[in-house]
Design brief:
CATH topology: TIM Barrel
Radius of gyration: 19 Å
Distance between the termini: 33 Å
Helix content: 25-40%
CATH class: Alpha Beta
Number of helices: 11
Number of strands: 12
Order of helices and strands: EEEHEHEEEHEHHEHEHEHHHEH
Largest sheet: 8 strands, parallel, barrel
Structural class: alpha/beta
Strand content: 5-15%
Strand order of the largest sheet: 3-4-5-8-9-10-11-12
CATH architecture: Alpha-Beta Barrel
Shape: globular
Length: 351
């Protein structure tokens, strides 16, 4: 196994590589927010390639493929010697109607009884005795997971669970030894503060990238409260790899959720212009656009690690170098200026 720089995840006893493997796409097709068809053998080989390159944690969730991603991760773990197995991070709180309607978006539910069922299901699918980091996937407000207009608020209110209630259950699971550490994903600073009053927040997981910078306050909160922070979609679902064009977006399969995302349609031109500004920086460092975009997220105070996905083993080489890439002040100035000129993304452009 190769070495990647590692750092402690908040106040836990987990020393994690600066880059972790994201298993969203490994869920395959047939569910809302799928990335299209995915070969399981490719998935397992890709996990093994990332581990061989020094990645020591995998982030997955039951909702990814309606349990399938966790099953694939479990098979990948089982094929590795125990001493080489990475940490496994997964989540609770997205509940789907499968097999009634697998194409319907999952609902954000965090009912105590459901959480206890979900953790047992995840342990079984992953084939492990303990989950290293267990996360509330979204606030338990009962809403459908959607990037568009939601349903009637009265409908979601009937399904909502108080944050203090579901966070207490995660703390109980930690005390019982079923999980090693607990975290909140997609929760704002007020929600993080409310949870901290119940039990310490070991880590957070916000979306954060050069094209999605709105979580800067949550990262600052984590830094101030001794919580780790792992960010997801740091390559913005592939847009920040340097491999996309309008033609490639048009050629995406119809069952790839990105095909209908504004970031890949109405906002595509501005996003690609910002990506182009990263190319000379990558060339100067002898690295890839992906590595520069990742290094930008890792440079933010409080960011412990970044989750990066891959669907084939060869894709790992494009971003693994970001774990040790240090951007200069001039690089950061150039990136901030490009963000301002292109108008791509929202939020602060420098820490």
């Amino acid at each position: 196994m190769n070495a990647l720089p590692t750092t402690r995840l908040g106040g836990t006893d987990l020393d994690i590589s600066r880059i972790g493997f994201g298993a969203w796409a490994l869920g395959g097709a047939g569910w809302s927010f799928a990335w299209g068809a995915q070969d399981d053998a490719d998935s397992i080989a890709t996990v093994h390639r990332a581990v061989a390159a020094g990645v020591n944690w995998i982030d997955t969730a039951p909702a990814y493929g309606l349990g399938h991603s966790e099953e694939v991760v479990g098979k990948a773990l089982a094929a590795l010697p125990e001493s080489e197995r990475p940490y496994v991070f997964t989540k609770a709180g997205l509940v789907w109607d499968h097999p009634v309607d697998p194409g319907r978006a999952p609902r954000k539910l965090l009912r105590p009884a459901s959480i206890r069922t979900e953790v047992e299901d995840s342990l079984r699918r992953l084939g492990v005795e303990r989950i290293d980091l267990y996360q509330a996937h979204w606030p338990g407000d009962g809403a459908l997971l959607t990037f568009g207009p939601d349903e009637d608020p009265a409908t979601t209110a009937r399904h909502a669970t108080a944050l203090e209630e579901y966070w207490a259950v995660l703390a109980e699971l930690k005390a019982e030894g079923k999980v090693r550490a607990i975290a909140l994903s997609n929760h704002d600073t007020a929600q993080l503060a409310a949870a901290e009053a119940v039990a310490h927040v070991d880590a957070i997981q916000p979306q954060f990238s050069l094209l999605h910078r709105e979580a800067a306050p949550e990262l600052a909160w984590a830094h101030a409260h001794g919580a780790g922070a792992i960010v997801y979609q740091p390559l913005h679902s592939g847009l920040l790899t340097g491999a996309f064009s309008a033609e490639r977006v048009a050629a995406l399969p119809d069952d790839d959720w990105r095909k209908g995302s504004p970031e890949f349609t109405t906002g595509l031109a501005a996003n690609l212009a910002l990506v182009d500004a990263l190319r000379p920086i990558a060339a100067a460092h002898g690295t890839t656009v992906s590595a520069v975009a990742l290094a930008w997220t890792l440079a933010w105070p409080g960011v412990t690690g970044a989750i990066v996905g891959a669907r084939r083993p060869g894709q790992v080489a494009g971003w693994i170098g970001a774990g040790s890439l240090e951007l200069t002040d001039a690089d950061r100035d150039a990136i901030a200026a490009a963000a301002a000129v292109t108008g791509a993304g929202d939020g602060p452009t420098r820490p």
